[in-house]
Each structure stands twice: as C-alpha cells, then as structure tokens.
Specification:
This protein is α+β, with helices and mostly antiparallel strands. It has 1 helix and 4 strands, in the order E-E-E-E-H. The protein has a domain at 55-85.
C-alpha cells in the first residue's frame, strides 16, 4: 500500500434508502450498487432506524434492555437479602 492512499473495504459498507409511509405514489429507487449490501435497519449513535424512519424497533430494544437490567437487579436484591438473614 502506497503511503497516503486508503483502500475501501466494501464489506463494511451498506446502503439504506429512507422512504415515507405516507407517500401515495411509487418512488423511483436508484439502481443497486454492486458489492454494497442494501439494508432496511441501521443503528446510528445508538439509535435504531428503519427505512421508513420508524423508531419502534429502537423503543423495543431499549425496553428489552431495561427489562433485562431490572431482572438482574431483582436477582441481586434477593441474594443480598438472603445473605443478610
């Protein structure tokens, strides 16, 4: 590799096309780009977006994460109370 030149790793690239649910007519999508995957969900700075700009999947993942944390805290709390008695 020559100094100052970067190589693009196409395996790390993906494209997402955001579309509106409210749009009543068909959208002309661009031609597919060779060797770049087309995705419907992307996570940017910890926020999950779908191609329809819905954050429902993000809310569900945050809810699941909170539920797992609360369950772990309940287990720890019960173990602490058992060790004190």
């Amino acid at each position: 590799m020559v100094k100052g030149q970067l190589r693009v790793n196409l395996a790390k690239y993906a494209k997402i096309i955001f579309v509106s649910k409210r749009q009543k007519f068909a959208t002309q999508l661009p031609l597919p780009i060779q060797n770049i995957a087309h995705i419907k969900v992307i996570k940017i700075l910890g926020v999950t977006f779908t191609n329809s700009l819905s954050v429902a999947e993000h809310i569900q993942s945050v809810f699941n994460s909170c539920a797992h944390t609360l369950y772990a805290l309940r287990i720890l709390q019960s173990q602490v109370w058992q060790s004190l008695n």
